[in-house]
Amino acid sequence: MHLSETDYRTICEWVYAYSCVQLGANKQSFVDARLSSHIQQKGFRSYRAYIDYLKKDKEEVEVFLDRLTTHHTFFFREFEHFQFLAEQVLPRFETGRHCSIWSAACSTGEEAYSLAILLSEDLGDNGNWSVYGSDLSRASIEKAREGIFRKDRLKELATSLRRKYLLEGIDDSKGLFKVQDSLQKKVTFERRHLLDGFGLQKKQFSVIFCCNVMIYFDKLTQQQLVERLFESLAPGGYLIVGHSENLSALVHPLECVTSSIYRKDLCKMP
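^ that's the sequence the OP posted. Answer follows.
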């Protein structure tokens, strides 16, 4: 099955319209690898026939987006960010002040649960803290809520912490690990587009992790996203992006702590 330039452009337009992700000219082979077997399994003989089908089936649009925008992740990815959190941020909350962290574009939940483990270790199982994870993908959010992971997703998680916070499967579930209920109840997952506001809730977070997301957006979308994240950040709070990302080309009032960590000035308090 051949992915023509015309069909590839149409797919790029669909992805951008629904997710704001910009695939670019160099992603054609990636798109073909992610979609071709799925399209054939659905019984279509061409990309054009599949694209026409997408116009009639909203549920299939979600599957289509999942296959192109869901990326591999694992527990404690980019460990330096968690180290910064433990050493520079969490000590301020040891007095009992509420600490809330948003894992934006949380995928299947590895980052959100990593944050929950760190908070539980530093502030206690019953501490005044919470983790909120959001993602555009309905399938990813469902998996995050299940809290079941393969061992390869836990490669950066210390064995002692894995044994403390996850249950190892047996028999048919061998090789799988389930997050303990006591930890899972501290984490909330919701399907949400990153550019959507929180409406009347006006949530503000102590820390926002938005890692390895902006690299898929054009500059206009990046600017809109940073403005939205700024609104959702509490005064004195931190925005953490991926190591391969930075906000230097964008207009924002955040203080740069490192190339991937930014702080909202306390003077922004109402």
